[in-house]
Amino acid sequence: MQESGKVTYVSLETDESFHGDYEAALIEIEQEFGKRHPMYIGGREVTAPREFEARSPIDPGILLGIFPEGGEDHAREGIAAANEAFLDWSRRDWRERIAVVRKTAGAMEDRLFLLAALLTYEAGKTRYEALAEVGEAVDMLRYYCRVYEQNNGYVFPMRSPAPGEECRSVMRPYGAWVVISPFNFPVALAAGMITGALLTGNTVVFKPTSKTPLSGMNLYRLFVEGGVPPGAINLVTGPGGPFGEAVVAHPDVAGIAFTGSKAVGTWLQRQIATVQPYHKPVVAELGSKNPTIVTASADIAKAVEGVARAAFGFAGQKCSATSRVYVHSSVAERFLQALRDRADRMEIGDPRRREVAFGPLIDDDARLTFQKAVEEALRDGGRLVAGGEVLEGGLYGRGVYVRPTVIADLAHGHRLFTEELFVPILTVGTFETLEEALALANATDYGLTAGIFAQDPAEIGYFFDRIRFGVVYANRRGGATTGAWPGAQPFGGWKASGSTGRGVGGPHYLLSFVREQAQTRVTEPAGGE
Ligand SMILES: NC(=O)c1ccc[n+]([C@@H]2O[C@H](COP(=O)([O-])OP(=O)(O)OC[C@H]3O[C@@H](n4cnc5c(N)ncnc54)[C@H](O)[C@@H]3O)[C@@H](O)[C@H]2O)c1
Ligand SMILES: N[C@@H](CCC=O)C(=O)O
């Protein structure tokens, strides 16, 4: 059950007493900005000949920090340090590692508002989205500790097949893992992957994305503050390319945990399978093209709210975002008009402001993706129901601010129905039968999240039986396809959207970071020969 008062992604009513603390944190966090940061390898501060700047998407005039451009050598040094630290960390009692992760979660909770304020500056999140993300991270760490405890550290006594044989199954860590995180949930998803590896006794080389490195740096410090020893966690900043080339080929890499685009994740999986001498695990959480179905029996007001929140929360930059809707033709125009009104009412602007619901896009590449998609839709007969514009002037001219956009009347096979764009563009098509809607929803290589709005329970049952996505929702007003929470909705993609079939924040996630060892100890009977 969700504790009352906590801000989650799907909170419809929250205890609004947090605003003062958050606003104070917005001011306090500025003291961290503009500094030069090192990487951390084996507990040592490490610099690089080249550096890069991290700037705020709210206004790129705000310099958040200067970071080393780590290269292949740093990746290799990180892996060496993580291997050196592995024996000590993996041999510790699993309860000791739980204590470290719980302490990290506590430190994170103490910094809830500062981390949320940082997410606003670094990723452009509104206060509700930012607080929900930090809350998710804290809950995720605690949830994994509980799962590890409930499973007795994955140590299971087994039966004795012969006199004197004591047998047990022990799930053991692999070694040094590389953790690579995306820009859109730089705290929660990075913290989740790092915890999956560390809690189970592996060590980590963590490379945050260059779009949000300051969150990554803060996360590294929190784990060290929690008690993770030097070398058991290492931080390498910089571009993905050289880092990726070095780690997939390194003989001492035990596994990779990656959250990001399908293109990069698939490349990592293929490379490691080709280059390494034997199988090494890749825990990959990738992109998607998430559908929501609205049937003729749906409560349209609920559907509009759920779809608007899922399509335009964090400006559509969620792997779980609804990016296509299939609506029954009999209710299509009613749904579209209400959705247009809802989208047009969203306050767009500086996410530090309380009333803003829709902040900036992450960078200029996102602007180009947005503009190209709108042009293409109009060229191909699409109808612009809402939005479509890039905003100009004042703050709008400094960051990338666009309007939440809804497009109808495109052919079902159009690129905008099939490719993940990761910008706030929602494509809406119609259907006549639920069978057709399911066929359209499933006609994709992706398989992360999907939703339905229907008041007929038979339609919901039909949907759950046939939808080929890992995280599915019915009638979710707080977010048609978004807002999974640790311990409630294990979050894992099917097909091209994920590699393991075990959801993040679910009871089986930790198993991706361990392998089974069958231990047999033979004890001679006392007084034997
Ligand atoms: N399934 C999920 O749980 C989930 C969650 C969040 C985001 N995502 C997906 O992530 C994407 C958005 O995030 P993004 O734009 O940061 O993704 P991205 O793939 O561009 O980058 C992710 C990370 O990979 C690194 N990288 C880039 N090239 C690399 C290479 N050749 N080798 C190794 N690392 C490399 C980047 O530096 C970054 O740290 C979307 O596709 C979204 O759907 C998925
Ligand atoms: N927990 C979040 C994760 C989104 C990833 O991009 C959600 O379910 O919306």
Low-pLDDT stretches: none
What oligomeric arrangement do these chains adopt? single chain
The helix tally amounts to 16
CATH fold annotation of the largest domain: Aldehyde Dehydrogenase, Chain A, domain 1
Overall SS class: alpha/beta
Task: Describe the structure using short key phrases.
529 residues; alpha/beta; Aldehyde Dehydrogenase, Chain A, domain 1; Aldehyde Dehydrogenase, Chain A, domain 2; 2 domains; 7-stranded mixed sheet; 16 helices; binds nicotinamide-adenine-dinucleotide; binds 5-oxo-L-norvaline; Ald_DH/histidinol_DH; Ald_DH_N; NAD; L-glutamate gamma-semialdehyde dehydrogenase activity; L-glutamate gamma-semialdehyde dehydrogenase
Protein described:
The chain has two domains: 37-109 and 133-148 and 174-286 and 498-517, Aldehyde Dehydrogenase, Chain A, domain 1 (3-Layer(aba) Sandwich); 290-474, 3-Layer(aba) Sandwich (Aldehyde Dehydrogenase, Chain A, domain 2). 38% of the residues lie in helices and 19% in strands. It contains 16 helices and 20 strands. A seven-stranded mixed beta sheet has the order 15-16-17-14-13-18-19, sandwiched between helices. A five-stranded parallel beta sheet has the order 10-9-8-11-12, with helices on both faces. It has a three-stranded mixed beta sheet with strand order 1-5-4, with no helix packed on it. A hairpin with a 7-residue loop joins strand 4 and strand 5. Helix 3 (94-110) packs antiparallel against helix 5 (127-150), helix 3 packs across helix 7 (213-226) and helix 10 crosses helix 11. The protein binds nicotinamide-adenine-dinucleotide and 5-oxo-L-norvaline. 5-oxo-L-norvaline is lined by residues 9, 136, 184-185, 318-320, 482-484, 491. Nicotinamide-adenine-dinucleotide is lined by residues 180-185, 189, 207, 209-210, 240-241, 243-244, 259-261, 264, 267-268, 285-288, 319, 420, 422, 448, 491, 493, 497.
